[in-house]
Amino acid sequence: MFNYFQAFNSATLKAQFDAQLLFTTDLSNKMLEGVQKINELNVQVMKALFKESLANSQRLLGVTTPDEARSIIEEQAPPATEKIRAYQQHLQNILAETQAGVTEALESRVPETVRATEAVIAEVMQKVSEETMKATQRQQEVLEKFTTPLTQDPEVTAQAKSGSSVH
Question: In the 8-state DSSP scheme, what is residue 65?
Fold first, then answer.
């Protein structure tokens, strides 16, 4: 009987599994590096915003007229817009670096993974073919065992030729 465990417990399968594991690990590492960089950027931005907000709050607490307060608030608009653009640019750079890393990982690992997978498929197909041939041969042997006694018995052979049956 065909043992599926033996068919899939081979060095070829181990190589394919290792190739897929390396592929997945590389992709995960590249993605994690990108997420880590984005997180670091966000922490930096939040620290800077907190410091600026604290400084502006202190300035606003020291104002004596509404015009001074409006002036302080209006001063913040252009720098805030520039900071948003800088943040977007940093974010785009991180995403581009991450995409380049993922592409590099794909280019380096996919051929190896495909070769390993093709080797597993070839091995499994060969084993399935061998087992199919063995099963066919066993079926033929069993069929021969059942038909051989009938053809070797002269009485049965004579009856078969004459078309009569024994009652």
Answer: S
Q: What are the pLDDT digits (tens) for 94-139?
A: 999 999 999 998 888 888 888 888 888 888 888 888 889 999 999 9
In this structure, the dihedral spanned by the alpha carbons of residues 90, 93, 98 and 103, taken in order and rounded to 10 degrees, is 170
- DSSP three-state, residue 15: helix
**C-alpha to C-alpha distance for 13 and 130, rounded to whole angstroms:** 18
Encoded tokens for 61: 């607490």
The residue with greater pLDDT, 167 or 113, is 113
Q: Which two tokens stand for residue 147?
A: 């038909």
Q: pTM of the full predicted structure?
A: 0.61
Helices (H) and strands (E) in the chain, counts: 4, 0
